[in-house]
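Re: flavin-adenine dinucleotide structure - here you go.
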Amino acid sequence: MMSHSLKSNLGEKIVGKPTPRKEGPGKVTGEARYIDDLSFPDMLYGATVRSQIARGMLKKITFRPDVPWSEFVVVSVPDIPGKNYIALIENDQPCLAEKVVNHPEEPILLLAHPDRYMLPNAVAAVSIEYEPLPALFSIEESERKSEIIWGQDNVFKSYQIEKGDVDAIWAKADYIVEGEYSTGAQEQLYIETQGVIATYDCEQGVTVWGSMQCPYYVHKALMVVCDLPEDKVRVVQTETGGAFGGKEEYPSMIAAHAALLARKSGRPVKIVYDRAEDMAATTKRHPSRTRHRTALTKDGKILGGEIEFVIDGGAYQTLSPVVLSRGTIHAGGPYHWPAVRIIAKALATNAPPHGAFRGFGAPQSLFAMERHMDRIARTVKVSPAEIRRRNFLKPGQTTITEQTISEPIDLEKLLDRALVLSDYESKKSRFRQQGKNGKRKGGLGIAAFLHGAGFTGSGERYLSSVVGIEGQPNGGVRVLVSSTEFGQGTNTVLCQIAAEALGLEYGDVAIAQPDTAQVPNSGPTVASRTAMVVGKLLESAALGLKQTLIRAGMLGEPYAAEEFRCACRAYMERYGELRSLARYEQPDGIHWDDQKYRGAAYAAFAWAVYVAEVSVDLTAYSVSVDDFVALQEVGRVINPVLARGQVLGGVAQGIGFALYEKVEWRHGRMQNSQMTNYIVPTSADVPPIRVYFEEIANQHGAFGAKGIGELPMDGPAPAIVNAVEDALGIPFNSIPLMPEEICEALTAAAGPPSAGHSFSGVR
Amino acid sequence: MRSNPAEFEWAAPATLEEAVKVLAGDPDAWLPIAGGTDLMVQFAAGTLERRRFLNIWNLGELRRIDGFPGELQVGAGSTYTDLRENDIITREFPLLGRTASWTGGIANQNRGTLGGNVANASPAADSLPALMVYGADLILTSTRGDRRVRYEDFHTGYKRMNLAPDELIRTICLPRRFSGYISYARKIGTRKAQAIAKVCIAAVGRLAKDSTQLMLEDVRIAVGSVAPVPLRLRNAEQLLNRRPLDEARVELACKAAAAEIQPISDLRSTAKYRAQIVNNLVREFLDTLAARERER
Ligand SMILES: Cc1cc2nc3c(=O)[nH]c(=O)nc-3n(C[C@H](O)[C@H](O)[C@H](O)COP(=O)(O)OP(=O)(O)OC[C@H]3O[C@@H](n4cnc5c(N)ncnc54)[C@H](O)[C@@H]3O)c2cc1C
């Protein structure tokens, strides 16, 4: 694969190279300014008074008299000049709760004071009386509809996909395999917590600086809450210390709060959450439940099946329809389904809204699919590798949305390579020979999966992103996008693409700070879309820039970098500005039917086979991931170091999702909102992760790139739990899989406690 | 950060003598702070009731380790790093060095103190089972003078202890009689490093040849995180001492241990898991004893 597809790219000088990070020196030297490093004259600090109960009517608010309230700015609903909602899809989430609260962290009042240390006590001194209403805390409770907490039926959104004649397959089946799988909430745990600074001025309107992924989402939300026109709202992304989806929609909320306080006080207002507030009040990965019922031939080929995919959206709809959509479309994995019916629902519960998190629904439904494949393998009595081999999608076949696979992907080869790289067969036989009395048991697990890059279906068409590039007085160029850097490498990769497209040095390209007053809307930095979609637009914009110079008679091809710089300087001297914009246009042959949920769901898929090796400690019932092979086909790798970093981080986060990260809920509230009791893996818990790429150039992406950011989150959890089953012979179908559950299962299997492991005595 | 620094006071006496004087002035108001690795967490969370910090970090009298012929005296202000670097501890009290090595990370080990671990009195604290099995004594000090107490009786209930409000822990005394013992410790935490224990155990013991058989001698086992206080498993020990090590004994000892602990379910784990783990770890310890004997 590798050799055949990349010949055309051999001439590339910058793409494919490990160029250093654009913002790296600033981060390393401490020059980089994060939001809490910034301070404005006369700035106040803001804090949020939140609900204490999961659901109820607000009755009365009292302010304890021992606090000097006259020193505080207090904002409540009547202070909102515009509409009281955070603009997103349904606009159902209030900026501040007015009459009812629907989750136990709902903002009700805002406070600001010049001394940030005065705030916690003041927040605690506001007491709120409620008339409690019954609340719902799980998918099951929401389904039972004992209470209707959202819309007519607690359903935020539902989809149904039908391919082929599902009802006809059951009679033909040699096996019917059923299973239920579930995944828990997961906290993004970016290092830098959420934070913004807002200023407000009658003339200039509102400006917000902050840690965020999507400046234009915040821009849109501020226009609504502040009732201001487009040009009176400015949003600037400051250096952002991690996001993982957690700074996709939530920054609109905190920005609106800071803006309201700034408007009322007439002073700049900073709000930065501490870790406990950030973990408890902001979004997490949607918990999910998936049910599979699959019809198979006697040799394990899928005839078809039914999949029911349900996610818990929390109290407001926010992004749940889109998360549900991606989860639904990925629910069939990288397999060929001649017939399938998928019924998907996002339900309301009285927890803080769940939201975007790397993978966006796909890690949930793919966990189910890949666990189910192992169940099928066991039922049909073929190996986990073989069952996948027999069902892999092939070029020319169609996905569950009837999108034809047109690229020359060969999943069997990918699987074979992963098996070789992981030394699968010999390890497997070694584990089989291990005696019964060892203190640890080893196992291997496979996950095969895909991840669609870019917005789903017609999403990119609606976004209609614009990317710009402009000449600089020194002859270099500057990239103009609202796409944000938050550790993943956006700045670097986009500058590489621009340099390559223009034949410039990497150092000739700069990138503008995302500022809605300065850069066009290149869409949100989500959905693994930046390198592929924004990068491709940047490539076109760069070519436009070059054409301008050529048409002006200042540049001829071929040219050396210095000639370009001269031409650029000359053009700017003469005309003042050299700028080129490119707008997204849907490529031909990409059709999507939103009603039937059918057609080309994504412009490209990345493909992967991961193999996890685990050992289970039979004394402590803990799982250790001992080796991990991550093999993926992601189109052209623009920057090998950053790409590898994405995979390493994704696998580590996947290990957390599978084995450690458990949100302890009580009445809709997170109980373990501290790093000491919300357990993420440390470097000691992460094995050497062996990362390998295959590259098939993607015609829709910059220099052949596809998306890579989310893919590595999808595979680790099922690979690990499959490996645990391989080690112990016990199926676990719910994550996070904690030692307590393994203990429960093993002791139940072995009888009374003392049978845990046997004593060998003194000879 | 949820505390208001303006509401806090800080006193930094230069000597231990001055420190106990300040403390005696208003014992219920002052909060001794050594490494601060427990207190700063509570400060950040805004949960401290006392607002006056009495700094005892790095007081010379507290930060010293003295080897006397009969006992090792460890100043309460010794850090985990101090413990790990001490030769006598490495040789004669290896459990203390090992538990120090898995207490937090390096930064925490440079700052956290053994006295702080004792006085913070978390049932999950990592060093405490080791102090129990080594039969430690504590020297407590105040303007009223010093007194020496048995560590095993020090914790009287959840976060309650035999320490008057005007007293500081001055020294942890360890009798030097454990060389030649086989020792075992294990921490079952929430992950491999930087974890709070779900269960931790420390144990020592010897196997001695009777006329015909190998007999267990001076077996001492203590566990953490399975009761309101760190717990010495006295009943289990009694069933083992001066007995041959065989499966029936192991069975009996595990049953006794199960009856001694009072595990609870909390954010970290479940009572059932903790009970099973204590069973498994007591077995693993006895297995270790047997294996060492086989090696000889
Ligand atoms: C990141 C991190 C990881 C941690 N990991 C672990 C771990 O793995 N295992 C573990 O057991 N603990 C752990 N801890 C807890 C803590 O580090 C230990 O309990 C440490 O021993 C506390 O010592 P200190 O000197 O810092 O105590 P401080 O915070 O200064 O004080 C703790 C308490 O002891 C009192 N005190 C301190 N010294 C004396 C004295 N001489 N006389 C009387 N009272 C005194 C104080 O008044 C206070 O009540 C961790 C803490 C952090 C922040």
